[in-house]
Structure formats: C-alpha cells, structure tokens
Amino acid sequence: MSYNRYMIYDRFQEEAIRYINEGHSVIVSAPTGAGKTAIAEHVIEEALKENRCVIYTAPIKALSNQKFRDFQKQYPDRIGILTGDVSLNAEAPILIMTTEIFRNKILDDPESLKKYSWIIFDEVHYIDNEERGTVWEESLIFLPNHMNVLCLSATIPNIEQFASWIASIHKKEVRVVIETERPVPLHFYFQCHNRVADDLGSFRREHGFHPNKTNALIKYVQSQNGLPCIYFVFSRRRAEYLAEELYNHNFLTPDQRHEIIELYDSLCAKFDLKGERSAVEMAPLIERGIAYHHAGMLPTLKEVIERLFTSRLLKVIFTTETFALGINMPSRSVIFDELMKFYGTYTRTLKTRDFYQMAGRAGRRGIDKEGFVYTRINPGRIRFDEVKRTIYGKPEDVRSQFNASYATLLNLYEKYRQDLFKIYPLSFHFFQTRPPQQKEALRLMTAKLDILREFELINGDELTDKGKFAKAVYGYELLLSELYDVGLFEELDEAGLGVVAVSVMYEPRKNQRLEPVSKMASEIKRACDQSYERIKHRETRHVIRPLSKAPHFNLSRAMEAWIKGAPFNKILQYTDADEGEVIRYFRMSIQILREIKDAPISQDLSGRISNTIRLINRGVVDAEKQLRES
C-alpha cells in the first residue's frame, strides 16, 4: 500500500496511515474537526484499489446518511447503505451501516462479512452510551478475525486501555494514534450578568444579577466577525423560541438575501416541501440568515437547513446536540445556551467530552485561524467551579456499558450453549472492572437466561420456535415473542401490524398525552399490556436492570390513518408528537417489521408484513427516497 502522495497530511494522520499500510488495526483519538475522516478515506481508497471491501459504521442514522451522501460524490456506484429502514446498493464494496446492523450481521449472518477486510467505527467513544453502548462492545467482541479495525474517536483519556482490550481478545496488535492539538485553536468567552469576557474569574467579583440577553450576545459575536455561529440548546422548543426571538435582526445583505431565498425555494421544491407548514414558517427566518434544527423537524427540512448552512448563507443556527455528532457543519463560533443537560434519568453539568464534541464545531479548517466558543452562565443555576471543571477539566474515561440483550443471549446460546458464559471475560466491562462488578454482570446474564427459560424461549439445550422468533427482533424480544406465541400477529391486518410495531418501540417524551385509541388498537393494547405486566413481574423478581421497555400507543391512531392512505398533515391531528418524531418512529417500525419478517413465520404473515411495510414506507416516511433525491 502507498497513500495518496498528492495529499498533505498532518502528523497524526501520517502516523495512522503508516500503521494501516503496515496491516495493523488502528485507534485514533483526536479533537473534533482535526481531520480523522481523511484516515477513513485512505482505508477506503486503498481497499478499492485492491478490490477489497470495507464497512463504515456510524452511531446514528443521520450520520450514516450524511456519510453516504459524502462518499457517493467521491466513489459513485461503489457505495451502499444499510440502516434498517434504508437499503441502497447493499452489495457495494463500501457499505455504510449503523452499528446495530453490523452487530446483527455478526450474530445472524457472519458468512455475509467474509468479503470485508476492514471495519471503520466512527465515534467509537459511543461505547460509553448507556442505552446503546453495549452494541459497540458486542461488535468488537465478536468481530471476525479476518477484519482489521479503524476506530475514530474524540479525545479518550483511556485510549491505551481500550486498545489493550481489543488486542487482548483478538490476539493481534492494535496501534494507538493520539492527537491533542486542534488545527484551529479555540478561544473561550463567557456571557454572565449580560457582559461578555474571556476571564471567567472576572464575574466572581460582581454583585447583583443582570439577566443574559440573547440579542446582546449575538450582536457581540457579530461585531467580533464571529459568524456563522452554531447556538447549542438542549430543548427543541427553546431552539425555536430563540430563533423567533432573533426575528428582528437581519444578518444578510440584499444580495445574500436574494441568494438564500432562491436557494431555499429550489431546495424546498426538490424535497416536496412547497406549501409544507413547517417550511413556510421557517422562511421569514431564512430570509434573515437565521434557522433552527432539531430532531422534531421533518427530515427533509433538516437536510435543507444543513445545505443552507454549508452554503455559508445561514449566519446563526439554533440547534440541539445531534448537530455536533460527526455531521460536518463547522462554523466560526459556537454558543452554549447553558451547561446543564438531561442525561436520560438525571440532569447534570455537561460532561467535558460532550462539551468538546460540540465546541469542536467552532473554527473552520482552511478558513479560520481561530474558533470562538461562548458559554452563557447563570450563577443561580451553575457554580463557577462547575463551569471551570467542564471547560478546563480532563475529558472523562470511556466506561463499558455492557448489558447483553435477550436476542444476543439467544443467538449465543444457540451457538455455545452454557459456554456462552465464557464470552463475558472477553468484554471491555470485565477488562476494566473489579470482581464485585464482574460478579453482578454474570448474575445479570444468568438471570436473563432464567427468564428466557421461564418464558419458554429455551427448552433444555435448544431454542424453541418462540425462541428462534425472539432472536431476530433485537430490543423487543420478550414482548414481541409473547404476542407471536399467543397468535396475535396471525389475527392482525396491515393496520394492526403497523400499530404493534410503532407501539412497542415508541417512547413518549415528558408531558405527552395519550389520545383515545381505536377499538382495534384498544384490543392490541390490552394484549400488549397483559404480556408486559408478566414480563415486568418476572424481571423485577430477577432484579433485571433496566426493565424491558413498556409499549406506548401514542402514535397508534396516526399509524392507522397513515396505513389507510391519509396525507401526512392530516395524521398529525391524532398526536402531539413532533412531525419529525412521527417520521422517525414510523421508520423504526419498518425496521422492526423487517426483523419480524426475517424470523421463522408463516408465508401468509410474511406477505402481510411486506404489505404493511409498503403502506408505511411512502411519502415523507420513505428514507430511501430522500437519499435518492439527495
């Protein structure tokens, strides 16, 4: 192998590429915006030259989609994507997928991975994610021996420990490459008492309280030539509120205003957003160089906003943190609305690693000599020492979140029987914890196996038919296998199947209401609730943590109406969920229906599920259509 002689690489990129060329697996830890993607591109280009195949995994579908679009420009017709709700060019030599899909392939269809020589794990520090980190860990534990690994991550203090773990379980050397310097240095400012300064200590001497004003901060950033700017908030509604609050401020020249209106109109036409209420409401902000972006928006409208931002015509964007996760949207400045964030079950000060994931969007390589990061401080909500610890402290170590799913255990039991307990010592959890934590992890695995036997998914040394069904449906194994076992699926038409799929996975946000459900959905709800109570009772008795997810029927009426052909704007009357949220869960429903279809079921049920998928996967829900139009 020889890397591209026309490319000028930084020191850490050259080091990583040298190790790759020598045939080593590599883990790279470098700040956001340092240029880790160039290393992945080298792996891809060299593999294509040698007619070998590569898998690129990303933690979220939005990032998978963006990578597909980016790589498609570089390697047309040689890129595919597989994310559960999207399958385009799935036999391509370079295949992008979510980490869940890769993990499932390892366990369900390892033969399909024989042609791939490299696996690239983007944002591998996601192994620390409480909800989904175990998927990364399982993927690395069961990684086929013939595949080399390139792991890309933001700063990880314990990267040597992480690399040693991978090397120990696969019995081959893993090279570590660390970069601590950013190509564009960051300069930190603070807004407190409605004053802006770069000395945090200067605010300690002030008495009284003067509330911070958004307009004052934005005007200051503009006066310092700090636009474009990404303004991070931790609430969808606040993103919209702050954007509207800035309505009277115009950031564009007449020529820029004309250009952005023309571009916005053409993109809205391209993505069928003409006349769409949310797109119309956004237009007056766009004309002033302002926008907001969050998960509750239509996916197509989010993509339009992203394209406007890369055009550099948008000057201020108010957005939630997903905008920071790998999506290549750099700006000159970043603003933090606050440093307090809800972490699933509790609110705490932002982790240092998360802060720099977002702050790293400040400073455009090749454009800016410096990036600017502004943090708004309300002394009534956060102490100065907490601010200091977040911004100037050491990033947190990556910690294992290993907690094997029921489906994973079923797949392992089918292959290893009782020897599956030999798998746990291979985990990162075992590698970095003490005996008391290791004992508890083994107890949890044993308890889950006991539950699988009690629900008759395992009988003796064999999986039952019910167990073979359950091992195909990751994350919802117990509830769906119970419904399958009582024959519910065989009784349901397409609308009923859609209701089951969306309800088992829907997770309402705080204060969302449940609208009255139809008679058909009410019967499904009764069956689901009865089964779930049995599951909850058994898991509680066995001290399983966390409990299996409960079903929620907030989207059942919307799903019924959609399957029966109602237009999207009409089905929103049946729920208070955001339109982007509805689309996301409809797409997730397609994924779980495909998993059920791959399970051993009757031909008749398989046909009805195919029809259900077709009826759901239309219009704004069709993720493949959005990618094709891109």
Structure notes:
By secondary structure, the chain is of the alpha/beta class. The chain is 46% helix and 13% strand. The chain folds into four domains: 11-178, 3-Layer(aba) Sandwich (Rossmann fold), CATH 3.40.50.300; 186-392, Rossmann fold (3-Layer(aba) Sandwich), CATH 3.40.50.300; 402-454, no CATH class; 472-629, Sec63 N-terminal domain-like fold (Orthogonal Bundle). The strands form four sheets. The protein has an eight-stranded mixed β-sheet, with helices on both faces. Helix 20 (494-505) packs parallel to helix 21. The longest helix has 23 residues, at 519-541. Mean pLDDT is 93; it is low at 1-6.
* Overall number of structural domains: 4
Helix coverage percent of residues? 40-55%
The best one-word shape is globular
Q: Rg from C-alpha positions?
A: 25 Å
Q: Hey, roughly how much beta strand do the residues contain?
A: 5-15%
Which CATH class of the largest domain is shown? Alpha Beta
The first-to-last residue Cα distance is: 33 Å
CATH-defined fold name of the largest domain: Rossmann fold
Give the strand tally: 19
- Widest beta sheet: strand line-up: 4-3-5-2-6-7-1-8
CATH 4th-level superfamily of the largest domain: P-loop containing nucleotide triphosphate hydrolases
Given the helix and strand composition, which structural class is it? alpha/beta
Biggest sheet record? 8 strands, mixed
Low-confidence stretches: 1-6
| Tally of contiguous helical segments | 26
- Assigned CATH architecture of the largest domain: 3-Layer(aba) Sandwich
Mean of residue pLDDT values:
93
